[in-house]
Amino acid sequence: MITPPVRGAHRRHKRFIYLSALGLFAGTAVGSGVVVGGLCGQVGMLLSAQVPQLLQGLRIAVLSVALSYGVAEVRGATWPIPTRRWLVPQRWGLFGRQIYAALFGLSLGAGFLTVINFVGYYLIVGLCVLIASPQLGAVVFATYAMARAAPVLVAPFIWWLRGQAYTVESAATVNQRWLSNSDGVAWLRASVLVATAAAVWLE
Length: 203
Description:
Radius of gyration: 19 Å
Structural class: mainly alpha
Distance between the termini: 35 Å
Order of helices and strands: HHHHHHH
Helix content: over 70%
Shape: globular
Number of domains: 1
C-alpha cells in the first residue's frame, strides 16, 4: 500500500508528490518485471540451443505443478510454496518518500525479493524460460508485475472517488476484504494456474 502525505505540504504539492510516487512505484514495478522476464527468456534461449531436453522437462514440470496446485486451490487445500520471509517495510508505502515508492515497486515487480504466497510466480518464471525469447519474456513478466502492482495503484483512487482519505487503516481494510473472500481468491488463482498451463501446452 502507498498512502498520501497528510501534513506539512500545500495541497497542490501533496498531489504532485502523490502522483510522482505512484509513477515511480509503477515504473519500477514494470521495469523490474522487464529485467526478470528478459533474463528468464535469455536463459531459455541458451538452454534451447544447448540442452533442449531440459526445456522439455521444465515444460512437464510446469504443467504438472499448475494443474495440481489449481486443483488444490479449488478444494481449499494449502500446499507449501518456497518463499523468503522478508516483508516490505511499512514506511516504504508512505507518499512523500519517493525512494521508498521506487524500492517498493522494484521489490514487488521482481517478486523474488519479498514473500511469495502464490505458486503462480514460479510458473510465470518457468513460462518465460520456455518462451526462450528475451523480448517476449520481458512482456510476459512485466504484465505479471503490473498485475501485482495494480491493487496498490487502484485502491487510493477508489477511496478518492468516494471522497475519503486513503490511510494505513484504509489499506488494511482493503487487504482484509481481499483475504476474507477466500472462495473468490481460490477460483481466481486456479484460473491463473489453468491459463498458465494452457499457455505452456500451446507454446
